[in-house]
Structure prediction request, 310 residues.
Amino acid sequence: MLLDTASLYFRAYFGVPESVKAPDGTPVNAVRGLLDFIARLVADHSPTGLVACMDADWRPQWRVELIPSYKSHRVADEPAGADGGAGGEGSVEQVPDTLSPQVPVIEAVLDAIGVTRIGVAGYEADDVIGTLAGAATVPVAIVTGDRDLFQLVDDARGVRVLYPRKGVGDCDVIDEEAITTRYGVRADQYADFAALRGDPSDGLPGVKGIGDKSAAELITRYEDLAGVRAAAADPFSRLTPARRRNITEAGAYLDVAPKVVRVAGDVPLPAFDPAVPTEPADPEALTALATRWGLGGSLTRLLEALAKTA
Prediction:
C-alpha cells in the first residue's frame, strides 16, 4: 500500500473539523484525520507492506522549466519556510495556516510508529509512487485523491488506485474498467489524454477547445498523442480545420506536456523496509507525541489495526 501522504492529509484537514485540537488549543484535525484514515485502510485491506510517500519537492524545477505555469497559481507570496516545502527555485506552496504546523507532527508520528516514509529531492510523491509501483513484484494499492496517478493502474500487474470519495471516508477502487467507464480511454492512454485535455488545477493549459470528451474521442481514434498530432498535420485527416489548427498551434506545449504529466518511474530511491509496523518503532517518542498533541483514539485505532496485521 502506497500512500500519497500530502493528498491524504489535505483531505483529512478539510474533512475533519478544526475544532479537533491538542490540549493547548492547536488544531490537529489533519493529524488525527490522517491517522484514522490509515487505520481504516489497514483494517479494510490488510496490506503486507506500507509506505508513506512524501513530496520532497512539490513543484520540481525540471517540470517548471518545461512548463513555467506548472502549479504556479499555488505558489505563496512569502519566502519558503521550514514548514512549507520548497519547489521550483525555492517557491513555497500555499497551505492553510492551520495545516502547515501539523505537517511536522504527522511526520514525527509516522516515524515513531515505524511507518516508512520516502521522499526524494527533486521529485513529487507521485514520482516516488510511480517508481515503487513499477518495481513491485506483488499487487499494489495506491491511495490518493490525485487523478494523475490513474495512469499507473494496471490490472495485469495488480496495480489499482483507492480514490477517497469524501474526506477520510470510503474509497472507490479504480481499476482499468473504472477508468474506461469514467473517461473513455484505457489506463495506458490516461497520461496522453490528460496532457491533451490539460488541468487548470496543475497549471496545464491543454489544447484550446479540447475538453474531457473530445480528448477521449481523439485519443481513442488515434491511439495516442503522437497519433493525434500526426492527424493534425495531415490535411486529409478527419479532423476539422479548426481542430487541426488548435492542435498544431499547441505544438510547443505538446512537445513537453507528456514528460510533465507522466509520473517518473526512475526515481533513485533510498534503501527502505516496507514492512507494516506491528508495534511502535519508538514507544517513548510516540507516547510523548500522543500526550503533547492529544492524539487519543485516533492513534489507538491505528496501532490496533497495525497490530492485527502481524
About this structure: The mean pLDDT is 92. The longest strand covers residues 159-164. The longest helix spans residues 29-45.
